[in-house]
Write a structure and sequence with these properties.
The chain has 668 residues and is α+β, with helices and mostly antiparallel strands. Helices cover 38% and strands 24% of the residues.
């Protein structure tokens, strides 16, 4: 797994390489856009020389173009889409006095003035009112708008000359109170708007002649109200810009405040937008390769004011390019801005191009990288998986062979696999095989040890016994007689041990040479139990024999197996205990159970009771027990293809031995 994860470094390294290549491509596109903007600026030079744009004060008011008429009712509902672009009218001594919006079509011009006033005072010219200064026929005409009943406002000239009176009569105004003060909306002929406008907001706190505060279009020194230029679309400049802007490029000309005075061109896409998956390349590009964007707000086509880092740099005289989000989802645009200083103008040229070509190139490279990386990763992971699977299978085979090497009878019977392999697992398998050979030889030696000991010790034991018998015919001192009796008892115990060893060896040979015949298991068990009645002493013996159960095997061996189990039960059952022998059918299998009350089996010896030379009897027992009885039981059970097991009775009250024979018909 770790090696597989390390292969992920390959596509990560390729991705970083693509990021560097994409950065180089972006840098080339930045330089290309700056060169394009230089060419566009050069082509616009003659038009800028004859235009009045750019000779503006630091502050200006933008005139938005309309294709229809507004209703004049004092409400700002029709201006709601432009509320964020309304120009701020500062107070003379600081703060915000209100906001103003200007819109016009070919015939009319509309103004919306929102005034912030906590205590509005509606008393004509001695109350709160607004004064508009217009440059009609290059003459200044001042008109006062005084709030009246909601929905109407009075328009009157501030001077008595006839020309001012005519201008006032051509202006219609409406007034509505607002939460923060009041709003005035007015309409006038388009030719009255001129190129500059002055707006003075007069706020009276009481009926005195002295205003409480003033605000509006401040003069350059902010000591009084002056005229602010009107920033509006220049059709001549837009026509010239449309002729020189490259295809697939959107261009703006803005003033120092970012107000749009000319716009041309559209952003075209090289992506297949008709495809249901057109968004996928842009999504991959934005997530994996795109640069850090200038902000998260895409520019709309009909915006009236542009803001951005590149425009701020261009106002300072520095041409620059930034990357911005596009209106189309998951794509980006490159935006370059440079100052237009032709004939002393203070304008900025902004060009935008979508990164579709760059996106397609980067995504094509990224797609190839992903395909090749996935192929390489797939091959690598498949090879690692196959190698790990083969390695795991070999280890499992080796572990299974080691687990099954020692049979329940203590025989070593497993063959270690992969001993011919030349790798590390082959070395381990050969080491296991060598250990198994050594253990097999040692196990064979231990199995033959009993017969060898019984054969080799019989002659010395006979010499000892004959010598003790001859010694008994002579008169011996009392103390010597005691020692001779002890030696005779020891020789007798040794004889019994040798006889048990010989009996076990003979029984193993008898089992291997036994002739199989059909018999009734229940009949054999009943016959044995009749003889046990006189052997239990004061203990209680309960029997429950079902049947018949027809088996194929050696009835004499079954009787000998039951004798061993009964002898074991008698040896561990106290005098007031109980022995129970049952033969019944459990799930179609004849099951012989011998239970006795008494001590429970130790947990660490429960699985080893049926091994040779294993006994849990105390060492100071009067009888000689070598732990061969239960071993013989297992040998006889295995001959009859039966299973033998030992368990403690509930609450550790005794022990139960069970011999589970195969189903009738499954023995052959």
């Amino acid at each position: 797994m770790l090696m597989g994860l390390l292969t992920l470094l390959l596509p990560i390294g390729g991705w970083q390489w693509l990021v560097q290549i994409e950065a180089l491509l972006r840098e080339n596109q930045d330089q290309s856009m700056l060169a394009t903007s230089d060419g566009v600026a050069l082509a616009l030079g003659p038009t800028l020389q004859t235009s009045s744009l750019g000779h503006h004060a630091p502050r200006s008011l933008y005139v938005r173009s309309l294709n229809s008429d507004f209703s004049v009712d004092g409400y700002a509902a029709e201006w709601s889409a432009w509320r964020d672009s309304l120009s701020v009218l500062p107070a003379q001594w600081g703060g915000e006095m209100g906001r103003v919006g200007i819109a016009a079509n070919r015939n009319r011009a509309w103004l919306l003035i929102e005034v912030n006033d906590d205590h509005p005072l509606y008393r004509g010219l001695r109350g709160d009112h607004v004064v508009i200064t217009l440059t009609d026929q290059r003459r200044l005409v001042r008109v006062a708008i005084t709030p009246g009943p909601p929905g109407s406002a009075d328009v009157q000239a501030t001077t008595a000359d006839v020309e001012a009176q005519v201008v006032a009569r051509r202006i219609q105004a409406a007034f509505q109170p607002t939460i923060s003060g009041y709003a005035i909306e007015l309409v006038m002929p388009r030719n009255m708007l001129g190129e500059q406008i002055g707006i003075e907001i007069i706020d009276h706190y009481d009926a005195s002649d002295t205003p409480f505060r003033r605000g509006g279009t401040l003069a350059a020194n902010e000591s009084g109200v002056g005229l602010w230029p009107l920033a509006q679309r220049d059709s001549t400049l837009e026509t010239a810009l449309a002729r020189v802007v490259p295809e697939g490029t959107r261009a703006w000309v803005v003033d120092r405040q970012g107000k749009v005075v000319a716009q041309a061109g559209t952003l075209s896409s090289q992506l297949d937008t008709d495809s249901a998956w057109y968004w996928l390349p842009g999504l991959v590009y934005r997530w994996l390769l795109s640069p850090q964007l200038a902000d998260d707000t895409p520019r709309e086509y009909d915006t009236i004011q542009l803001q951005g880092e590149e425009i701020d740099q261009a106002v300072l005289g520095i041409a620059s390019t930034v990357w911005r989000p596009a209106a189309a989802q998951f794509t980006v645009v490159a935006s370059s801005a440079r100052p237009l200083t032709e004939a002393g103008k203070q304008l900025v040229l902004v060009l935008e191009q979508r990164s579709d070509a760059l996106l397609l190139t980067a995504n094509s490279a990224l797609r190839r990288l992903m395909v090749y990386s996935m192929i390489a990763l797939g091959i690598t992971w498949l090879a690692l998986f196959l190698f790990a699977t083969r390695l795991s299978l070999r280890i499992r085979r080796l572990a299974a062979a080691a687990d099954s090497a020692l049979s329940q009878d203590g025989d070593l019977r497993a063959e270690i696999p992969d001993t011919s392999s030349r790798d590390e697992l082959g070395d381990l398998a050969r080491s296991f095989d060598h250990v198994m050979d050594e253990l097999g030889q040692y196990n064979s030696y231990l199995k033959s040890l009993a017969s060898k000991l019984s054969h080799e010790l019989n002659t010395p034991l006979a010499v000892v016994r004959s010598s003790l018998d001859n010694l008994a015919r002579h008169d011996l001192p009392d103390q010597a007689t005691t020692y001779a009796d002890r030696a005779r008892d020891g020789a007798e115990r040794l004889r019994l041990i040798l006889r048990s060893l010989s009996e076990a060896n003979r029984l193993e040979q008898a089992i291997s040479n036994a002739e199989s015949e059909g018999f009734d298991l229940a009949e054999v068990i009943v016959g044995c139990c009749r003889g046990y009645v006189h052997l239990v002493g004061e203990r209680k013996l309960h029997t429950r024999i079902d049947g018949p159960f027809k088996l194929q095997g050696a009835p004499d061996l079954i009787a000998q197996m039951l004798d061993k189990l009964f002898d074991n039960a008698v040896g561990f059952t106290p005098q007031d205990g109980t022995i129970e022998i049952t033969l019944d059918d459990e799930h179609g299998r004849p099951t012989l159970s011998i239970s006795n009350t008494g001590p429970a089996l130790p947990d660490h010896l429960r699985q080893r009771l049926f091994e040779s030379m294993v006994s849990i009897r105390p060492h100071n027992s009067d009888n000689t027990h070598l732990g061969l009885g239960l071993h013989i039981v297992r040998l006889i059970a295995r001959y009859h293809r039966a299973k033998v097991r030992a368990n403690n009775l509930p609450n550790e009250q005794g022990v139960q031995f069970q011999v589970i024979f195969p189903r009738t018909g499954d023995q052959n």
